[in-house]
Amino acid sequence: MSLTNCKILTVPTKRIPTLSSKETLILQLLVQNGESYGLQLVAGSRRRLKRGTVYVTLGRMEEKGYIRSTLDATPGTTGGLPRRRYKPTPLGRRVLSVWTHAADQLRPEFAR
Amino acid sequence: MRSGSRLRRWAGYLCSQRTMDQLIDPVIADLQHECAEADASGHTSNKYVALLRGYVAFWILLTLHVPQVWLIGRIQAFTAGDRPTLRPSLLAAALTTALVTASLVATPARQITRHGVDGAWLLVLLIPQSLPFSIPLTIYSGVVSGLKGRSLTTRLRTIVLIIGLTGTLASVGTMLWLIPASNQAFRVAIAGFPIAPGSAEVNPRSLRNEALVLKTKGRDEEAGHLLFAYHSRWAIAGAALVFALFGLAVATLRLRRAATTAMAVVGCVLYVSYFPEVAHARFAPLSNEPISLALAWLPNLLMTVTSIAFMSVRNEPTRP
């Protein structure tokens, strides 16, 4: 095996970004509504997202780099813990766009 | 105290800072925010609904999703870091299981052909009796093949010891329930009519009681035989942990593969043949319980001491 081949074969292949149905929904909601709280996403999802699980998906999406979160600077007049706001990253927007485009392209094929 | 503060404190004992930041705190913040909104609106019932929804969300998250996220993280970390270890380890373990099981099952399997009984189910019934030996040897070969030449981290050592402990628990379960039941089923199938269980087919407690009864009757030789069988069952069940430790020790030695294999074969043959040899010797002092106990646990003790001696020898890792 040549040295070049060796190098090519040992280069770690980066995984292609994928979106689950929940991740797609969250990205769609964030792109439509802009920066949102977790509960707003749950409310806007028409029961497709649950308040017990939405933060698991949001955490995973943040690790993948699709969204970014920031803590509210002020906890509000009531005190308590500051809430977390989520917004899509440029990567998240691009992945959603490609994903939606691919799904639109493939849908007629599967509709037959 | 603000709603959810106590829940948050409990979760803080269990979860990492990252899990708290990503999962727990947002749920608690939502709960507190909704309660505050309900308070401001003056509707007490709304506050209770908000509390209930918040608590349900919190407990679902803590009991279902936090363990799931933790487990997935562990598995990903393991498969990413230890993939080179896993393949040779599983291969060697599978090969050893097949070889040991086949060699231990071969002798009694001859009876099947001799008696002309339909063999497939009887072969299955023979497999459990090979497990107390095949489990430790499988663990040993898996550990040595996977870890040979690698620098042993505390995490790898812990994983190996957990595997050893799990193997021991599996062996205990096999010895207590599986072997007596399968041995008896085998004997009945071979005989063709119901027969009383022999010493290998009773559970350990009955075996010990029988030995003590024989001893009071002065039948020391038979009592010793049964007493040694009783103690050796527990000793063999503990062998999985001992062999895991031994495998860990051999993996730390800078030896050639042939030397490691030779050491493994000699060690295993000596270990496996020791118990039947002592049991067949049928000498009277075995009826003395401390002697019987000591002789049954002697191989485990020797292997543990050898393992500690091997591990205390300083070896430079050859491969990170």
Description:
The complex is a heterodimer of chains A (112) and B (320). With 112 residues, chain A is mostly helical. In chain A, 54% of the residues lie in helices and 11% in strands. Chain A contains 5 helices and 3 strands. In chain A, strands 1-3-2 form a 3-stranded antiparallel beta sheet. In chain A, 26% of the residues are buried. Residues 1-13 of chain A have low confidence and may be disordered. Chain B is elongated. In chain B, helix 6 (204-216) packs antiparallel against helix 7 and helix 7 runs antiparallel to helix 9 (257-281). Chain B is 84% helix and 0% strand. Chain B is built from 10 helices and no strands. Chain B has helices at residues 5-14, 17-41, 44-115, 119-147, 154-191, 204-216, 220-237, 239-252, 257-281, 289-312. The longest helix of chain B has 72 residues, at 44-115. Chain B has 320 residues and is mostly helical. Chain B folds into 2 domains: 5-71, no CATH class; 81-315, no CATH class. At the A-B interface, helix 4 of A face helix 2 and helix 3 of B.
Brief rundown of the structure:
The complex is a heterodimer of chains A (112) and B (320). Chain A is mainly alpha-helical and 112 residues long. Chain A has helices spanning 3-10, 21-33, 38-44, 54-64, 90-111; strands spanning 36-37, 67-71, 84-88.
